[in-house]
Amino acid sequence: MQMVDMFYEELENAKKRNVPFVIPIGTIEYHARHASCGTDTMVINGIMRELEKEKEIVVCPPIWYGVSSYAVAGPESGTIHVDVDVYEDYIYCILKSMVYGGMKNIYCVVHHQTEEAGLMPMTLACHKAAKKVIMEYMEESRGRGWWGSRDYADYYKNMGTGEDAFSYIKVMPLIDREAQHKCGGFDHAGKYESSLMCALYPRHVDLNRAKLNTEWFAENAAEASAELGRYMVACTLEALRESIV
């Protein structure tokens, strides 16, 4: 289900049944000459589109702009960078509205600088915003000392479950470390990411333009294929079936 298409009663029903609410978190960033600047976000959208076919989830509107940095290319390339502190506040406001609104099974799914599931500024901002929201929500709703109260005597028993407040919001890479290894590799605008786009959004990648690339990270983009992309999608979905519950 796409959140933007849902009526009030449908949203309330999804919240009551603890259906996963998924927020695609990407960037607008230069992806060489052959792939669109929205690649990071589109890859998440495309895979969630596939996951929707087999699993009940609510896909929230994506966060298109992010902490891209200018490490790959400057603003003249089409890259749009949001300062990490501003970004953290923005994500905090979104998550706060969702948690205070009764959504207790939220997944922030990131596809940007997530090689080996590493924690980079954008992912860290999401983690910080999530923990801040939960700490404030629990103190406001349960009072100071909520964690130390007798009501939470089974905290360690419930860790990681729906009863654990710190599990209300999960921040995770779209393609986890194990899936990246199974796929055969992970990159930015190269063979692997371009293959994902070939499989998910073929109109937004043009391998004929790869010959125009001069950057090292896109040198092997011409080796991309829809076949490899479909395999990568399958590996990613296999992991997401287990992690989004």
Proper CATH architecture: 3-Layer(aba) Sandwich
Number of strands: 4
- Measure the end-to-end span: 15 Å
* Residues in helices, as a percent range: 40-55%
Q: What structural category do the secondary elements indicate?
A: alpha/beta
What is the fourth-level CATH superfamily? Creatininase
Please indicate the count of domains: 1
Task: Provide the CATH top-level class.
Answer: Alpha Beta
Task: Report strand %.
Answer: 5-15%
| Strand and helix order | HEHEHEHHEHHH
Q: Using only CA atoms, what is the Rg?
A: 19 Å
The CATH topology corresponds to Rossmann fold
| Uncertain segments | none
Biggest sheet: strands, sense, closure?
4 strands, parallel
Q: What value does the average pLDDT take?
A: 96
Query: Which of globular, elongated, flat, extended, rod-shaped describes the shape?
Result: globular
- Spatial strand order of the main sheet: 2-1-3-4
User: What's the helix count?
Assistant: 8
Short description, anyone?
This protein has 245 residues and is an alpha/beta fold.
Outline the structure in words.
The chain is of the alpha/beta class and 245 residues long. The chain has a single domain (3-175, 235-243), classed as Rossmann fold. 41% of the residues lie in helices and 7% in strands. It contains eight helices and four strands. The protein has a four-stranded parallel β-sheet with strand order 2-1-3-4. Helix 2 (39-52) links the parallel strand 1 and strand 2 (58-59). The radius of gyration is 19 Å and the shape is globular.
